[in-house]
Design goal:
- The protein is mainly alpha-helical.
- It has one domain.
- About 40% of the residues lie in helices and about 10% in strands.
- The protein contains four helices and two strands, in the order ααβαβα.
- The chain has a two-stranded parallel ribbon with strand order 1-2.
- The protein is globular.
- The two termini are about 15 Å apart.
- Bound molecules: iron/sulfur cluster.
- Iron/sulfur cluster binds next to loops.
- The site of iron/sulfur cluster has 7 residues, from loops.
Length: about 100
């Protein structure tokens, strides 16, 4: 989504650390999205801990994408999540 210009990713550690620049940049976002790799929900919890409401959320194992540690995500999995969120965001913004 960042590559396509439909989103912008932020450093979750910076948000969790309440780094002011990161917090301000995130506040400027129109739609706050959290993508988690498993039900532990670290991204969602980190954003909420920093005071953000998560507008759109996806926990990818619920989409049938298995958690692994190989740091080599399948392009098809990335596209699946990206497409899902792009559609959700477009609907939210009245573009669909
Ligand atoms: S994969 Fe699960 S445990 Fe690991 S950072 Fe993501 S949500 Fe947290």
């Amino acid at each position: 989504m960042t590559r396509e210009g439909t989103g912008k990713f932020f450093c979750l550690a910076g948000i969790g650390g309440h780094v002011s620049g990161m917090i301000e940049s995130t506040k400027a976002g129109k739609v706050i999205v959290a993508i988690d790799g498993c039900p532990v929900a670290c991204a969602k919890k980190t954003l909420e801990h920093a005071g953000f409401n998560v507008d759109e959320y996806v926990e990818i194992t619920s989409m049938g994408i298995e958690k692994n540690y190989n740091l080599n995500p399948l392009t098809s999995d990335v596209e699946k999540v990206s497409q899902y969120l792009s559609t959700r965001i477009s609907k939210r913004m009245g573009l669909l």
